[in-house]
Write a structure and sequence with these properties.
The protein has 135 residues and is an alpha+beta fold. The protein has one domain: 60s Ribosomal Protein L30, Chain: A. It has 2 helices and 6 strands; from the N terminus they run βββαβαββ. The radius of gyration is 15 Å and the shape is globular.
Length: 135
């Protein structure tokens, strides 16, 4: 198997390439699971807007991955939780995704609308899984 993940968007499924890959075949290697990240900043303050929380959560994932010696382009799967979800949330989410992933290597993704997260102020959470290719 190659040392890079294979990102698939097969015919017969909707064109999701702007937002995510329909399937990802991960290489053999070390799997890194990043806990759900939110809009919390290092000082425990919370970004005040939903889009700000999205941006902060993605940055938090990046920090966690770097601590594990992994990179955003090694993410193979992400799960997004959005409080009060509407389709208008897709645009800022697409911007965050585009800012952090190469267009041809988007992770497989699931978006889950939720009524609430761990604190009332939290509006967005994302967890990701990355694979660091083996030797």
């Amino acid at each position: 198997m190659s040392d890079a993940a294979r990102h698939l968007n097969p015919p017969g499924l909707m064109d999701s390439r702007r937002f995510f890959s329909q399937a990802v075949i991960a290489p053999s290697g070390t799997t890194v699971y990043v806990a759900g990240q939110t809009g919390f900043r290092v000082d425990r303050s919370i970004a005040p807007t939903k889009e700000g929380q999205m941006a902060q959560a993605f940055e938090n994932v990046k920090i966690a991955l770097e601590a594990a010696q992994a990179r955003m382009d090694q993410v193979v799967s992400m799960t997004v939780y959005i409080v009060g979800y509407t389709e208008a949330d897709l645009e800022p989410l697409a911007r965050c995704t585009a800012a952090h992933f190469p267009a041809d290597r988007l992770p497989a993704s699931t978006l889950v609308p939720v009524p609430r997260l761990a604190r009332d102020e939290l509006l967005f959470e994302v967890s990701m899984t990355a694979v660091i290719p083996g030797p």
